[in-house]
Design goal:
The structure is a single chain. The chain is an alpha+beta fold. The chain is built from eight helices and five strands, in the order αββββααααβααα. The protein has a five-stranded mixed sheet with strand order 1-2-4-3-5. Strand 1 and strand 2 form a beta hairpin. Helix 3 packs antiparallel against helix 4, helix 5 runs antiparallel to helix 6 and helix 7 runs antiparallel to helix 8.
Length: about 200
């Protein structure tokens, strides 16, 4: 099934300093951890790569693959119990939040905006959570609503304003570049940088 698909479609990239093998794969759920292997999609840029690898390493370090199996086993035995379903969801979310916290401890809290941008980029994936292999661990979790909550929780108010301004003006710049002159694009870029700088130093 999915494990065979990964073995067939993956391309080896490196073995990182933690001893985990990193692969590129054409799959909408990437990045994810499967066993001791980290899978990244082609859409993961160089700026995103270090955070994605670190996040999946934290899943590996926390033993989340094992806890995934335990969660699904308990759910299968108690599928009729709504409390177990609720506990299942909360436990899965706690795993993601714990990894977010660990990533920021490794890189420093000052990198929260950059890490938030990575989550925001994953949030823009229209197929988020639709093709997951559920015994793997994924950086984006299982739904977009929880992704939004994670971004808000890991950022301070000031950092969140900076991230939102970056996202809004990036969209505006992309739209205007299709319909306006080069001078207008330069103006938008300058305005974006100015507002981000102001929000950072407030």
């Amino acid at each position: 099934g999915f494990i065979y698909y990964c073995r067939k479609k993956r391309n080896f990239v490196e073995t990182n300093s933690c001893g985990l093998e990193v692969y590129n794969i054409d799959h909408s759920s990437a990045p994810f951890l499967l066993g001791n292997k980290i899978y990244l999609s082609d859409s993961v840029t160089e700026d995103m790569r270090k955070y994605a690898i670190c996040h999946e390493y934290c899943h590996y370090k926390h033993g989340d693959m094992f806890w995934n199996i335990i969660r699904y086993f308990v759910l299968a035995v108690n599928f009729y119990n709504p409390i177990v379903w609720y506990a299942f969801v909360l436990s899965e979310q706690d795993c993601e939040l714990a990894c977010d916290e660990s990533v920021l401890k490794m890189f420093g809290s000052e990198q929260s905006v950059e890490y938030g941008k990575v989550l925001l980029n994953l949030l823009s994936n229209k197929s988020l959570g639709k093709h997951d292999f559920y015994l793997s661990t994924t950086m984006h979790g299982r739904n977009k609503r929880f992704m939004k909550e994670r971004i808000v929780k890991l950022l301070s108010v000031k950092s969140l304003v900076t991230l939102l301004l970056t996202a809004v003006f990036a969209v505006l710049s992309a739209f205007w570049s299709l319909s306006q002159s080069g001078m207008r694009q330069i103006f938008i870029n300058d305005l974006t940088n100015f507002l981000i700088t102001r929000s950072t130093f407030k």
